[in-house]
Fold this sequence. Notes:
Blueprint: H1 12-16, H2 26-40, E1 43-46, E2 52-55, H3 58-65, E3 71-72, H4 129-136, H5 142-146, H6 149-164, E4 168-170, H7 171-188, H8 195-207, H9 221-237, H10 244-249, E5 252-253, E6 256-257, H11 260-274, H12 277-291, H13 293-301, H14 306-316, E7 323-327, E8 331-333, E9 336-338, E10 343-346, H15 348-351, H16 386-403, E11 408-409, E12 415-416, E13 426-428, E14 430-432
Parallel strand pairs: 2-10
Antiparallel strand pairs: 1-2, 3-7, 4-14, 5-6, 7-10, 8-9, 11-14, 12-13
Helix pairs in contact: 6-7, 6-16, 7-8, 7-11, 7-12, 9-11, 12-16, 14-16
Amino acid sequence: MADDSSAKTFEAETYCRHFNHLSPDYGEHFAKIYAHMRQHCPVAHSDQLGGFWVATRYRDIMRIARDDDTFSSLYGITITGPVDEPGAANPIGPINTRSSGPLASLPPGPNGELPRLATIPIDLDPPFHQPYRRAVDPLFTPKAVEGQRPWIEHWVTRLINDLIEMGRGDFSRDLGTPLTSIYTMKAAGLPIEDWSDYAHVVQFGIAGSSSVAPRTRGVDMLHLRQRVAEEIQVQRQRPLQEGLISHLVTTAVEDRKLDDWEIEAYVWLLIFGGVDTTQACMGSAFVWLARNPERRQWLADHPDLMTDAVEEFLRVFAPQQALSRTVMKDFQLGGQTLKRGDRVLMCWASANLDEEQFERADEVDFVRENKRHMAFGMGIHRCLGSNVARLEFRLLFEQILERLPDFEIDEKRLRHSPVSGVVHGYESVPFTFTPGSKRPLGQAI
Length: 445
């Protein structure tokens, strides 16, 4: 028989010797990879991407996330290659230069690298983080987000209406990405009609491809950065009634009005966090429900447990798989010595599957009591948009189970996100169902 290399068994032990969360093998095998690492090398060093430590146990990741003095966010929260050369420009940051305020002259990191500051407040350490975070917290409280329910329900209904008579669709293209991207535009105070431009560029920047086509031919990150910068100038003159930009142009942080670059950095955090991560997790949940029709029916029969189901999907299918920190002083973790200047990857996805923290951690359990997952991170940088993500998730799946109850996915055309170590999900989820009828739209207020 001829050798079929595609049929070779994946060996987690071999992979873990040179761990690389950006490799093609990661997305399909991450649960197996992390299970091996938690058992044999819970804090391991990788020689890939310039070298870094990998933390995989819940308790170790919790220690990192809660110690901002030892583990800094200021010099990059992702690992995509070697440490930047001293003085290297941030390729994704705001287009307006820093001019004033406490962040204008922060020191270089232990490797000589510049502070990143492309996305505020997630790139900040104490004491700077708290006042910047406090400035926007009111926009993301449970009460504030719940006030958006009619608007989100309107768009869920509208998106399902667009495909329900055809009996087919693609979850990523037709439901997940549009819903999260359209709401992100609204929350930011950007033109809603531009949603596909931002979604396309963000997804393409992460994975080299996208589930949606852009509205504007040839649009790229520079175009979008310019649009955001221009919109800030417009709203400085005529603030809207709502939206992040208008909130920030009229808000003071420690008695100082924000510079343009700071507002841009806030907006880009919302865009990067809003258009892709939640839809990725929803896509994973959609695939799981299609593959487990009896559990799907059980959830449809128990709609009061949708909130619990969402938490379990977030735990098992965490879209943001990992974020990193820079070690600011020598530290002992899991029997290893992390040195000043080292980088460490906090693997949220592994923490969520840690057998020491969760019983039957690899199972989806809609009535699980322990809901203390790390899908939204931990510590001071816990995700600003967690309440938004939960509401979008719940409202979309309530209508899916009601209006598209017998959906089936096309396994042969199912495509994982090419770089699952950054955002884990599916680029394409083709599905079919019994056609239904459109529903009257609620008012989008």
